[in-house]
Structures are given as C-alpha cells and as structure tokens.
Amino acid sequence: MEEANAVAEALRNAKTLRKVEYDWNKLGSDYKYLVKKDKYNYSIKPDFEVNCSFVYSSELYEKISNFAVQNKVMKEQAAKDQKEYDEKIQEASGIISEISGRVKEVKVKYERLNRLTYKFATDYYPLSDHNEDMAMKFMAKAYSFTDEEKEYILQNYKELLSTSDE
C-alpha cells in the first residue's frame, strides 16, 4: 500500500513535469502534461503507463526557455553585426585597392624616371661630349617622354654623375 501511495503521489506530481521535445529552429518546444481522466481503463492497453524519459521541472524549463530567448536575440544581433562588419570590410577593401593602385602608379612613374635619368647620365650625356642639349635631343628621339619627365631628368642626372665620380 505504501508503494502504491508513493506511485500515486508521483503521478499526481507528474503534471508539473514536462517532457521536452525541443525544436531549435523555433522558439519554445513541444511538451506534454500527464492528462488526468475521470475514469481510468486498466484493460489490455492502459490509459497511462510509467514512461522513463528525460523531463524538466517547470523551474528548469523556464530557465531553459529564457536562455533560448536570449540565445535567439544574441544570434540575431550577431548576424546584424556580421553583416555590418562585412559591409565595412567591403568598403575598406575598395579604399585599400584604390590607394594601392595609386601608390603603384607613382612607383612605376618614378622607376621610369630614375631609369631614364640613369640612361641619360651614363649613356647620352657622356656620348654627346657633355652637351646637355644634344644629349637630350638624342634621348628624346630614342624615348618618347613628356616635358615633366625631361625636366626631372635634367634636374637629377647631375647627382648620378657626382656619385659615379666618387
């Protein structure tokens, strides 16, 4: 009798327990209470049976539900933050590539200018018997360059001559 009363008490208290079949894709879960009937059938297939499965108390279920709500909010915020981060990275990479392109243009320009200046100082100027105008005329026929490039060559070739003399 004592055991029967203990089982009956456990069944009465079972209505506060929830079987959790959680679907993580939606908020909340499907849970079932033990259904109380006015009359129970004890025939071949009884109305209820003792089922050993994982269940949570109402308090623990509330905690889990609250964590699930917080988790969903944090995931949504993380997705927003990731999207904003990706947009900023995209914007920054456009700026970086533009700056890199311009830096490369300047490097190429000055590599060409330094090559032409070196050519002028080592080949054309000495061959023209150190006549700057004649050397520039010969070089202008060999290489097409702008007035800006010509000016750069004339301003900088003497530095190369002084370092080669040392």
Number of helices: 4
Following the backbone from N to C, one meets helices and strands in this order, namely: HEEEHHH
Largest sheet: 3 strands, antiparallel
Q: Are there runs of 5+ residues with pLDDT below 50, and where?
A: 16-20, 29-36
Number of DSSP strand runs: 3
Shape: rod-shaped
Structural class: mainly alpha
Largest sheet strand order: 2-1-3
Mean of all residue-level pLDDT scores: 78
Gap between N and C termini: 117 Å
Strand residues, percent: 5-15%
Q: Using only CA atoms, what is the Rg?
A: 44 Å
Question: What's the oligomerization state?
Answer: single chain
What does this structure look like?
- By secondary structure, the chain is mainly α.
- Helices cover 67% and strands 8% of the residues.
- The chain is built from four helices and three strands, in the order H-E-E-E-H-H-H.
- It has helices at 2-13, 58-127, 132-142, 147-165, and strands spanning 17-22, 29-32, 55-57.
- The chain has a three-stranded antiparallel β-sheet with strand order 2-1-3.
- Strand 1 (17-22) and strand 2 form a beta hairpin.
- Helix 2 (58-127) crosses helix 3.
- The longest helix is centred in the middle third of the chain and has 70 residues, at 58-127.
- It is rod-shaped and about 130 Å long.
- The relative contact order is 0.06.
